[in-house]
């Protein structure tokens, strides 16, 4: 049997199964990832994190991400905080660099139960989102039902932020998947609905590409603050309130986005990968 250990971690309820493939090969099939993500027959997660040996000089670990539908993800702010905290504990120092397919993400333990991560630059070009046709990403030509006119931002992954008067009034399970798969987003997109409640405070709900409704989305919170600042609705630093709690986001003058929030190790366990391939699971 192929029994491997795992960690269950979360950042404000955005939860992860963490597998360690450093120094060894650990390649799960799409089917196995989907079975592992099943909250009734597997462990359950929004994203699966695989720790691998770093490739770039200066990186402490490579973090590979997969969504609950088995697809690969490019960025996850909440997972980055969790993994950074774990690697800091291993190495006994308060600063580490997490390598991802989207680049190197420096992280710092602030000593109060929170971790700050430099999520890299906010890319505002339409080709970086990407979208199907050239446009000003400050006002993208997408509308569906009660929402329209989103802002496009790429913070390691693609986001479309819709500003609304009341996020509670949005039928997220219905409109979220339709917008994720909208023809204007050839690679799909993460969809945020944001309600500005002050110059430094935003309420946000999210439909994540490949994962659906999650309690928090770190890269989505970053994209939302950037979108609000671009529209002149907020300052460049503020709190983004998600279903699972609050993140502090700052769009720095150098274009990078700094995200600060808590992390949690929920439990440790073991999983039989062979069972995840079985037709009886």
Summarize the main sheet: 17 strands, mixed
Shape: globular
Give the beta-strand count.
Answer: 19
CATH C-level class of the largest domain: Alpha Beta
CATH topology of the largest domain: Diaminopimelate Epimerase, Chain A, domain 1
Alpha carbon gap, first and last residue: 15 Å
Averaged pLDDT = 96
Q: Structural class given helices, strands, pairing?
A: alpha+beta
Can you walk through the features of this model?
The chain is α+β, with helices and mostly antiparallel strands and 281 residues long. It has two domains: 3-117 and 263-277, Diaminopimelate Epimerase, Chain A, domain 1 (Roll), CATH 3.10.310; 121-262, Diaminopimelate Epimerase, Chain A, domain 1 (Roll), CATH 3.10.310.10. 18% of the residues lie in helices and 41% in strands. The chain is built from five helices and 19 strands. It has helices spanning 30-37, 77-91, 172-180, 218-230, 273-277, and strands at 3-11, 14-20, 47-52, 61-67, 72-73, 95-100, 103-109, 114-121, 143-144, 147-148, 151-154, 158-163, 190-198, 201-208, 212-213, 237-242, 245-251, 256-262, 264-272. The protein has a 17-stranded mixed sheet that branches. A two-stranded antiparallel ribbon has the order 9-10. Helix 3 (172-180) links the parallel strand 12 and strand 13 (190-198). The longest helix is centred in the N-terminal third of the chain and has 15 residues, at 77-91. The protein is globular and about 50 Å long. It starts with a strand and ends with a helix.
């Amino acid at each position: 049997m192929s029994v491997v250990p795992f960690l269950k971690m979360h950042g404000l309820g955005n939860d992860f199964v963490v597998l360690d493939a450093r120094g060894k090969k650990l390649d799960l099939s799409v089917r196995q990832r989907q079975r592992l993500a099943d909250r009734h027959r597997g462990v359950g997660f929004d994203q699966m994190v695989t720790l691998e040996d770093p490739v770039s000089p200066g990186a402490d670990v490579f973090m590979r991400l997969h969504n609950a539908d088995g697809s690969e993800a490019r960025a996850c702010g909440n997972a980055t905080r969790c993994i950074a905290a774990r690697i800091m504990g291993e190495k006994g120092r308060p600063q580490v660099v997490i390598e991802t397919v989207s680049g190197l993400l420096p992280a710092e333990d602030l000593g109060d139960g929170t971790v700050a991560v430099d999520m890299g630059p906010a890319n505002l070009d339409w080709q970086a989102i990407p979208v199907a046709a050239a446009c000003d990403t400050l006002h993208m030509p997408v509308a569906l039902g009660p929402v329209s006119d989103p802002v496009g931002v790429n913070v390691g992954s693609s986001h479309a932020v819709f500003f609304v008067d009341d996020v509670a009034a949005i039928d997220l399970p219905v409109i979220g998947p339709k917008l994720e798969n909208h023809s204007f987003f050839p690679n799909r997109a993460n969809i945020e609905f944001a309600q500005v409640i002050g110059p430094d405070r935003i309420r946000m709900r999210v439909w994540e590409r490949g994962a659906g409704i999650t309690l928090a989305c770190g890269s989505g919170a970053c994209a939302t603050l950037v979108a609000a600042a671009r529209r002149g609705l907020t300052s460049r630093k503020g709190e983004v309130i998600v279903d699972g709690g609050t993140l502090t986001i700052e769009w720095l003058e150098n274009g990078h986005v700094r995200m600060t929030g808590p992390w949690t190790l929920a439990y440790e366990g073991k999983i039989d990968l062979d069972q995840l391939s079985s037709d009886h699971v």
